[in-house]
Amino acid sequence: MLKGISPLISPELLKCLCEMGHGDEIVLADAHFPAMNLGPKVIRADGLDIPRLLEAILQLIPLDQYDANHFALMQVVPGDPVDPVIWKDYADILIKAEPDTTPTFVERFAYYQRAAKAYCIVATGEQAQYANVILKKGVVKG
User: Fold this and answer.
1) Is residue 22 flagged as an active site residue?
2) Do residues 33 and 124 lie in contact, with contact meaning Cβ atoms separated by under 8 Å?
């Protein structure tokens, strides 16, 4: 155990967050996401939901202030009647951790292409649809 580190952050995830450099991306993937199929390293976090994990991660890393696309969500497929209510949870988390952040929305297949280039993917147990999040790491200001 470490003081000040959420128990939701596994040693493997902590190592990944430390290794990431400015501009590297991490995907928090819901249970529907094809995480194992895209190529980057996959960290399993099957019992976790994304909002709590997101909150814990944003206590450790800043988002990239030089790129407005530092918090990306998968755009709802046209014609899909799903209303991703989880996005409200994300907005509440962002207000506390990164108040100047506005989510950007990426078309489904473009999202998969971007995720395939990520530093790693965290495969969670989140069951909400369109719950995937891409975070672009920034720099810690001294």
Assistant:
1) yes
2) no
Pair 6, 56: CB distance under 8 Å: yes
Tell me the average confidence (pLDDT) per consecutive run of 10 residues in the chain, 142 residues long: 89 96 97 91 95 97 94 96 96 93 95 97 97 96 76
pLDDT at 14: 96
Nearest to 8 by CA among 81, 57, 42: 57
The structure tokens listed for 69 are 């696309």
Q: By CB neighbour count within 10 A (0-12 exposed, 13-18 middle, 19+ buried), where does 123 fall? A: buried
Please tell me which residue in 8, 14, 22, 98 is annotated as part of the active site.
Answer: 22
| pTM of the model as a whole | 0.94
Find the farthest-apart pair of alpha carbons in the chain and give their distance in angstroms, rounded.
Answer: 47
